[in-house]
Structure formats: C-alpha cells, structure tokens
C-alpha cells in the first residue's frame, strides 16, 4: 500500500485540510461560473449545479469521513457512476444544447 504525504509527515493534517477546502472552493466556483455561462434556463442551471455539488460531495466522502465508501468496495461503482454515467451523460447533454444553439445561429443569421 503506498505511503501518503500525510503518513510521511511531509504535510500536516491541518495543511491537508486547508488544501482540501481550497480545492473544493475552487471546484465549486469554477463550476458555478461555467454553469452560469452555459445555461440560461433555470431548470437546466439548477440540475447541473445539483449534479456538480453531488460530484463534489462524492469526491470528498470517497476517502474522508467516518466510513469512506472508497474503502468499502464501492469505489468501482462510484467511478462508473461519476466518470461514466454522470460525466459522459452530462457532457452529451451539454453538447446537444450547444449544437442546437449553433445550428439555430447558423440558420437565423
């Protein structure tokens, strides 16, 4: 089993926690910005924002918490759901909306 930076004491638990908080905030802010630009329809905006928040929570609870599900044999299912279904499905839905917008602009102008 690989030795982590925390186990090697090259980074303190406090620094690790602040790094995690910083990355979660950066993910949330950049995702919110991109979703805000991409979607004018409030239902689409809230749907993708909810999926983004769910993905952030899943990433945190994968290895952090009282019972991290990544160590209970549920990691493969999580990867399938979040990198397979959610990632590919969300990208597909975004591209379909984008392509319809481009086609609309092509035919209107």
Question: What are the main properties of this structure?
Answer:
109 residues, mainly alpha, 79% helix, elongated, transmembrane helix, 1,4-dihydroxy-2-naphthoate polyprenyltransferase activity, membrane, EC 2.5.1.74
Write the layout of secondary structure elements.
Layout: H1 5-8, H2 13-38, H3 42-63, H4 75-108
Helix pairs in contact: 2-3, 3-4
Mean pLDDT, nearest integer? Answer: 82
* Dominant shape: elongated
List the helices and strands in order: HHHH
- Strand percent estimate: under 5%
Rg over CA atoms: 18 Å
Note the gap between the termini. 60 Å
How many independent structural domains?
1
Going by helix content, strand content and strand pairing, the class is: mainly alpha
Runs in which pLDDT lies below 50 for 5 or more consecutive residues are none
Q: What is the helix tally?
A: 4
